[in-house]
Amino acid sequence: MLQTLRRSRISGVGKFLPPRIVKNQDLEKLMNTSDEWIKQRTGIEERRWIEPGMTNAAMGHEAAVQALKDAQKTPEDIDAIIYATLSPDHFFPGCGVMIQKSLCPGKTVPALDIKNQCSGFLYALSVADAWIKSGIYNCVLIVGGEIHSTGLDQSPEGRDIGVLFGDGAGAVIVEPTDKTGDGILVTKLHSEGEHLEKLWCHGPSSSDFPRLIKGSQVIGESYFPSMDGRFVFKNAVTRMCEVMVESCQSIGVKVKDIDFVVAHQANLRINSMVLEQLEVPAHKTLNTLQKYGNTTAATLPIGLQEAKEGGLLKPGQLVAMVAFGSGFTWGATLIRWS
Ligand code: ACO
Hints:
- By secondary structure, the chain is of the alpha/beta class.
- It folds into two domains: 7-177, Peroxisomal Thiolase, Chain A, domain 1, CATH 3.40.47; 183-336, Thiolase/Chalcone synthase (Peroxisomal Thiolase, Chain A, domain 1, 3-Layer(aba) Sandwich).
- It is 30% helix and 22% strand.
- The protein has helices at residues 24-28, 35-42, 56-70, 95-103, 120-133, 159-162, 229-250, 268-278, 289-292, 299-309; strands spanning 7-16, 21-23, 46-48, 80-84, 111-114, 140-146, 168-177, 183-191, 199-200, 226-227, 260-263, 318-325, 329-336.
- Strands 1-7-6-4-5 form a five-stranded mixed sheet, sandwiched between helices.
- α3 packs across α4 (95-103).
- The radius of gyration is 19 Å and the shape is globular.
- The model has no long low-confidence stretch (mean pLDDT 95).
- The chain binds acetyl coenzyme *A.
- Acetyl coenzyme *A binds at residues 33, 37-38, 41-42, 118, 159-160, 163-164, 199, 227, 229-230, 232-233, 236, 264, 266-267, 294, 324-325.
């Protein structure tokens, strides 16, 4: 006889933003841009950039400590770690083992890194959900963390992308729930590698021969992210709408049944178009982009933390998360919040 799989829930949330605030006006001094252009085209007013000495894993650690406290857990309780980032501190190994070392030294829990850019957090959540559902683990820590500032072209030529991204980390704790109907109801994920060069960073690349020349300082076009902004914009709107509808249909609910949407933070115009097309009223969401810019894998856990802290997430609500990013990869998840 088939046994009903148990469900998982997000029991704790946390975030860490580096204290250094970089306003649009600060970027006007580096690039040929303006506060007015950035605000009007993206909605971003300021972002956080790290100071030398800060690491991605150190930000992730701070976010994880807060998430553990929120879930009333200790590092001793963690069974597994998943770290979503496109900007790891090292080429290898990933940030997951760095968190294992700093949070639970001596406890050899598994640590997995996920490189799925803006949808990395949703990919991580689906892995944690599967682990919990199948009974393999009982307490999974997910971190989404990024340091973009050290990899952006901050010269006048870098304005296309340099103004968009910020640094930061968010974390959640995922645990089983016994309450019928609660927790993660569905996650739908997709990819379309055909468009990988529409938003990517070529190097450092193992396919370059040699990858790096010893002793040389490599600063080249291929080491900065590049993007076809308009193409990404259109695909982001289309795919995020599609996957929200797909997720709802798969569990027999309607988009209008959703109580709150935490959407990836790339551009306020993208998010308002998605909500408008789905007929979700603006009061059912929150945006953090104005303060933090696009922190890729960190935007969703940061958004969740701010929504929870602000009292916007209530038990019993149907909460959606949706993201689209480089790859292209995209996805959505629906959670009965508890
Ligand atoms: N400041 C001033 N002018 C700028 C800047 C800047 N920072 N960047 C570009 N411009 C100029 C361009 O050179 C162009 O000038 P031109 O008309 O003389 O050629 C003009 O502004 C318009 O440029 P577009 O790229 O056509 O502007 P658009 O309205 O498409 O906005 C933007 C650009 C904000 C990047 C938009 O396309 C976008 O948000 N796309 C989505 C991409 C994204 O958010 N990616 C992040 C990662 S993916 C994700 O998270 C979903």
